[in-house]
Write a structure and sequence with these properties.
By secondary structure, this protein is an alpha/beta fold. Helix content is 31%, strand content 24%. The chain has a six-stranded mixed β-sheet, with helices on both faces. Strands 8-7-9-10 form a four-stranded parallel β-sheet, sandwiched between helices. The longest helix is centred in the N-terminal third of the chain and has 17 residues.
């Protein structure tokens, strides 16, 4: 896949709001199959499109890219065939099956901008759309996308129950209603929804807002404050560390991503994952040796 094709693919994924990690080789000490400037896209299912190294390097990139996608933080991944002392600012990975060279790969998560659905044709609704765009959020008016992160009803008494109920039923993280404390409580009490108490009303933080723009600012600040933080799952490079999405190569002990796109082999009803074809072949030739301990 050429750089131009990869750029087109990345643009397509952004348009579709599909999260991915952009991986680019920034250092390659021979002997390695990758070169500086080589790049790839890593999807949330572990699929790698592009090239940043052979099987062994790919296994490490895949495992760490999934952790980076979860944490939301970029990282420089250094993969070497021998154990090295930690280097500040870099994630050190010891991959025993590399051909002898060392790679450094910049992993940059690309996650969709928060999506906010706004209901109502009021000055506050218009101000929300204008200010949210400046924050880098994606705002849509009058519809509730399936992947909306927040929904705000600012219609001042016009058709409030419908959008509120739909947002609650869809499990939208933040559901806000612009209303006075008294009227908001009455609207929520009349909702036919078991989790109606999730509706935030009056929507927004209490910052003494008066103008529509100030109210919109307070609502967006409330959305930011309540958004789930990245899980900050530990990004680790050693063997023997496991999470629900990871497994240990039974041959070399490397931590690899336990996803369909990783090299794997089913043995006696259990799926084993491998860092490279060498380990997979070794296991297939003598599985008892690697399962007896």
């Amino acid at each position: 896949m050429s750089s131009a094709q990869l750029a087109e693919r990345a643009a397509e994924l952004r348009r579709r709001r599909v999260p991915f990690v952009h991986a680019r080789v920034v250092l390659a000490d021979k002997p390695t199959s990758a070169h500086p400037g080589d790049e790839a896209i890593v999807l949330a299912d572990g699929t790698i499109e592009g090239f940043v190294g052979g099987d062994c390097a790919e296994a490490t990139v895949r495992a760490q890219a999934l952790a980076v996608l979860d944490s939301g933080e970029s990282v420089v991944l250094r993969i070497s065939p021998t154990a090295e002392e930690p280097v500040p600012g870099k994630l050190m990975a010891h991959n025993r099956c590399l051909s002898g060279g060392t790679l450094e790969i910049f992993l940059e998560p690309q996650r969709p901008a928060p999506l906010v659905a706004v209901f109502g044709d009021s000055p506050i609704a218009h101000a929300l759309v204008a200010l949210g765009g400046a924050l880098g959020y994606e705002l849509v008016a009058g519809v509730l996308p399936a992947d909306a992160n927040a929904a705000v009803v600012a219609s001042h008494g016009r058709d409030e129950a419908g959008p509120l109920g739909a947002a609650l039923a869809a499990g939208v993280e933040y559901v806000g209603l612009v209303a006075s404390l008294k009227r908001g409580a009455a609207v929520v009490a009349a909702l036919d929804a078991p989790d109606a108490a999730r509706v935030v009303t009056p929507a927004g933080l209490d910052i003494g807002a008066r103008t529509p723009a100030e109210v919109a600012l307070s609502i967006l600040a409330d959305i930011v404050a309540r958004r789930p933080r990245p899980s900050a799952r530990e990004v680790h490079a050693g063997a023997g560390q496991q999470s629900p999405e990871q497994s240990v190569d039974p041959v070399c002990g490397m931590t690899v991503a336990a996803v369909e796109s990783s090299l794997h082999l089913d043995h006696e009803g259990r799926r084993r994952y491998f860092c490279g074809t060498g380990c997979l072949r070794a296991f297939a030739a003598d599985p008892v040796r690697y399962t007896s301990s």
